[in-house]
Amino acid sequence: MYCILGQDKWRSSWPSLIIAQLRTRMRLHQPPVSPTPDGVDLKGKVALITGGSAGIGQDTARQLLALNLSTLILGVRNQAKGAEVKRLLLADPAIKRTNPDAVVKIVKMEMSEYKSIKACATTVNGEVSRLDLLVLNAGMAETHYKLAPTGHERIMQVNYLSNVLLLFELLPLLIATATITGTPSRVTWVGSRMHYRSSLIASKPVDSNAHVLDHFDDKDNFFSIARYGDSKMLGVMFTYELAMRLPKERVVINNVCPVHYFIARSVEDAGRLVVHAAVVTGPESHGQFLIDKDIRPPHEFITTPAGQVVQKKLWSETFEEMTGLGAPGLERLEQMKHL
Q1: pTM recorded for the entire structure
Q2: Which of 78, 104, 213, 227 has an alpha carbon within 20 to 30 A of 68's alpha carbon?
Q3: Parallel, antiparallel, or unpaired: how do β-strands 288-291 and 294-296 relate?
Q4: Residues 308, 151: contact at Cβ < 8 Å?
Q5: Active-site residue list
Q6: Are 155 and 232 a contacting pair, CB within 8 Å?
Q7: Where are the alpha helices (DSSP H) in the chain?
Q8: Mind listing the pLDDT tens digit for each residue in 148-203?
């Protein structure tokens, strides 16, 4: 099985068809990914993966369990599908052999709705006493403009805002786990090098007096071929800003692109790269964007004065939105300033 563009759900017809045809005709494949190093043992640890019922998310789950992960929580839209993935994971011969006592929990999560994200976080906080790893893998793309129930444009809601809310809902648990274990908890956000093609860079920059989130909610600023990259650009910018405020001794956060635009890569290799970012890299990856296993500098647009204005605005607007939602991680983040 092969994946393109890094996420598990591509809700459009022509982009996926064109890419599939290019892949078939050109017969292009990315080089294989080296195995996860020996000695990585996740026994006793708890991880949550969003979008874990297919594609990269599912294979990342399989690989983490093969590394002796004790408890895996899968955040899924379809609980029946999630239950089937749970069955397949626990029936996997390698997992049965090396990790027979593994626990897999299924939690419903509709990424287009804030209330679902908060309900998921409440469930997680109630069912586990620690969280060592959060993998923000869920994402989508589509060709038509549509609003989510929150009032935001749906791709931005699913790929950016809901991921941020989940992170801030679970941040106190991540920090508490690091305090208990004496090692940093981890957050890995599955991003994309498609953010290099964001509309912010050339075709549709944010007006100097405009709000960033309002800009992307405006239908006139919706470009289907660029919107996925736009959402990933916001995710990268957020990662950079959060890392400035979140000590890497408590939580290491990074952002990784495990696939190319048009070139096929197996979900096993893509999952291996997510696992590498999540449990192999060290504090040097804090606040960094990785392509495959390599840390890459910020796109040159982000480092420009205009890019920095957008990044700072985005942080401020996102913080305000999350404050309105009562995300507990915000207070905890503020407390970290005084440690």
Answers
A1: 0.91
A2: 78
A3: antiparallel
A4: no
A5: 228, 232
A6: no
A7: 14-26, 55-66, 79-91, 93-98, 114-127, 154-156, 162-181, 212-217, 224-245, 267-275, 300-303, 305-324, 328-336
A8: 999 999 999 999 999 999 999 999 999 999 999 999 999 999 999 999 999 999 78
